[in-house]
Design a protein that fits this description.
The structure is a single chain. The strands form three sheets. The protein has a nine-stranded mixed sheet. Helix 4 packs across helix 5 and helix 7 crosses helix 8. The chain has 15 helices and 18 strands. A hairpin with an 8-residue loop joins strand 6 and strand 7. It has a domain of 220 residues: Penicillin V Acylase, Chain A (4-Layer Sandwich). The protein has 430 residues and is an alpha+beta fold. The two termini are 32 Å apart.
Length: 430
């Protein structure tokens, strides 16, 4: 396994016994200040310093996009309904009460930098989105994740793939962003997102921890509440503070949960991973199995969590995708890629359109969650966390069929002699 300077940086961190890395790990002695670089259709945005300073930089660098985004939210039926509902039931006040201090301060910085175009409340509701979406009972989401390592992969290294599925959101399609955050009081981390997205759904930090979230489709009413800490904000906190899977788990078990969510955390250097199945009442962790595999979709798998959800019927979207992951990953299955998993094979899984219920290949542009590569994918990502590398397809939906562009977290953070993605990108599906 080739780790280069990334392995050295992690070992130095652990030997020093430090739980956090400072901003200087990425930006040297430069004063806090943001930067923006256009890489093809993707904006790469660097935010540095305190959360408030990051919010101001966020507003300065993405001002026009944020103005357009606010207009889109106000004019779009679904988003405007969500915001109006949130205000009606005072979820904006709840978001202010339960958001982590860093999110609250970054929203304040953004609002101050937007000259009234965005308010703190607008920003907080958007970044409390998992609880807002659950409160309005949105359905039809189709996220999928898998982690493989040891004998399951071509070289024994850990690989982590994910599809994030919502619905077609024009403003997110037009303005895909890779955020590089270099906090004054935490580990530098990178997330896949869009303007005003401060609580990420997908990200990786400089310590080799990757995290991504899946909503749970049908939790029972007693398992959720319209207050508590946001799981996507917890993704941000894990990326900012965790250097191991154990630290991430300790953090998650100490929090006040509100919604039903699955977070998959992979620890590349340790070749460990866990799927955390969580509600306001219960939390169970599933770890890599004896074959070095872990996968999940939009329903709980742990036996202890079955009381927390409505039964998942055979042939449903989440069941289909979970079953197809089993077919593609488990060593005993005839279609399995077990033992050959690498970045290209992982991309092929994210692009897979086979429906295990109908035994047919679906149209990738109109399958509505019937297979892994749903027509609503907004992010498709493959991580090699131990190497600090990831390949991402973002932009026009469905993203899984688009080109996968490579990034290096150490390179984005200015580490000397970083390992770079090779190849730099994988072509779009034919």
């Amino acid at each position: 396994m080739v780790l280069g300077s990334f392995r050295f940086g992690r070992m130095a961190l652990l030997l020093a016994g430090a739980a956090l890395l400072s901003c200087s790990a990425c930006s040297g002695d430069d004063p806090p200040g943001g930067d923006l670089e256009q890489r093809g259709h993707i904006r790469v945005v660097w935010l540095r310093g305190t959360p408030y300073e990051m919010g101001q930089q966020h507003a300065l660098l993405l001002y026009d996009e944020l103005v357009e985004g606010k207009r889109y939210i106000e004019d779009d039926f679904l988003f405007s309904t969500m915001l109006n509902y949130a205000q009606t039931v005072h979820l904006d006040d709840t978001a202010a009460q339960w958001s982590y201090p860093a999110v609250l301060e970054e929203c304040r910085g953004l609002a101050d930098g937007m000259n009234g175009e965005w308010t703190v409340e607008d920003c907080l509701v958007l970044n409390y989105g998992d609880i807002v979406m659950e409160a309005v009972q949105l359905a039809g989401l189709g996220c999928s994740q898998f982690v493989a390592t040891d004998a399951a992969t071509a070289d024994g290294a850990l690989v982590h793939g994910r599809n994030l599925d919502w619905w077609e959101v024009e403003i997110i399609e037009r303005f895909p962003v890779i955020f590089v955050r270099e906090p004054a009081d935490g580990i530098p981390w990178v997330s896949v997102g869009f303007p005003a997205n401060m609580s990420p759904y997908t990200g990786m930090n400089l310590a080799g921890i990757a995290v991504a979230s899946n909503e749970v489709g049908s939790p029972t009413d007693s398992e959720v509440r319209t207050e508590g800490q946001s799981h996507v904000q917890m993704v941000r906190e894990i990326l900012r503070r965790a250097t191991t899977l154990e630290e991430a788990e300790e953090f998650l078990r100490s929090q006040e949960h509100g919604s039903a969510e699955i977070l998959v955390v992979s620890d590349g250097p340790q070749r460990k991973a866990a799927s955390f199945e969580m509600t306001a009442v219960h939390l169970q962790a599933r770890y890599l199995d004896g074959d070095g595999l872990l996968f999940t979709t939009n329903h709980f798998i742990s036996p202890q969590m079955q009381i927390a959800q409505e039964p998942e019927p055979v042939g449903s979207s989440s069941w289909n995708r979970f079953e197809r992951l089993r077919q593609l990953l488990s060593p005993e299955m005839p279609d399995s890629l077990y033992g050959d998993l690498d970045v290209p094979a992982s991309i092929s899984i994210l692009r897979d359109t086979f429906n295990p219920t109908t035994m047919l290949w679906e149209d990738p542009l109109s399958m509505d969650g019937a297979a892994l590569a749903t027509n609503g994918t907004l992010q498709s990502v493959v991580f090699l966390p131990a190497k600090g590398l990831f390949w991402v397809a973002i932009g026009e939906v469905p993203t899984a069929v688009r080109s996968f562009v490579g990034f290096s977290v150490p390179a984005l953070c200015g580490e000397p002699s970083p390992l770079l993605p090779d190849p730099a990108s994988y072509p779009a599906a034919q």
